[in-house]
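Suppose you are handed a protein chain with no further information: no name, no annotation, nothing but its sequence. What can you learn? This example shows the usual starting point.
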Amino acid sequence: MFASSRDDGDAVSAGAQVRSFFARPPLLPFRRLLPIVLLLFVPFGAVVWLLGSSNPYTPAGYVGYLTKGAVFGKSRFEGVQKGPTSAGRAWMLDVTNVSITPYTYTEEFVGDQAVLSRDNLKISFAVHTVWRVDDRQIPLFMERFSTTVTNGDTEKHPDAIVKVAYANFVREPLRTYARDEVQRRNGLSVKDELIPIGQSVLTRIREYAASSPFVINSVVVGNVQYPSEVADAVSRKLAATQELERKDTEIEIERKERTKREVQAAGIANAMLIIRGQLSPLYVQHEAIEAQKLMVNSPNHTTVYIPVGPMGVPLTGTFPAADTAPATRVGQRQ
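A reasonable first move is to predict its three-dimensional structure. Written in structure tokens, the prediction is:
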């Protein structure tokens, strides 16, 4: 009985202590603490959000590849935006801009990269390719043909991204096709077939890139250079050909001149035949007398000596020197 009364007393004392602990007023009521907590947390959260958020911008001529990062969890693809535009401020939102305007890249085959033609002539040349990225396939372009992060922000530059994608997918097949087209032809015929070579390379690279985001606009082959000894030989041959053509022209001119002289001589001969056939000696004597009359009445101070026959009639014809009658002075006027 004595022990039970002691235990009951201990229980009553413990319960009284618990009630007295919870009955104590708090040091600072919760409703008074809440405004202070909010006053501290809201500015801190706003600063953190401003530092971690962004409003990525995409300029004209570009398509932006949007990604959303995460402090805990996984980053993910958010979408694309075609410039000029921005996505609006959002938490940990980033953009990688990809140019969709045409690029012109040049592949040179010079020095050790020069190509042997079918007849083993070493040829240097260049291939100029105009291409662009399909704006409808930017996610495919970024995920399978290029990269957004390789060496920091420098590698996120639009030109760097495109350059990486070109090197990964287009460059080597393009060089292979160009090399193959030149190797199929004789060396000296390459310079005359630059357009067909370019068309063949364009057709083959388009087939290769048909299911990719690369749009190949044109391929131009140019800057063909032959070895110096070949170029010099071609120059000498061209000079000799031009000299032969010049001589052929001169010969043709001489042939035309000879034909002209022959025609002129034939004309003169025909004229002489006509004159001989139509002019009699009596007619010539008549014309000579008439000319003599005109000279007598002429105001010119001229003395004319003509061969005359009996009665002063002028003689016409061809006479031997020994039989020629002495010349008679017809008249003289002072």
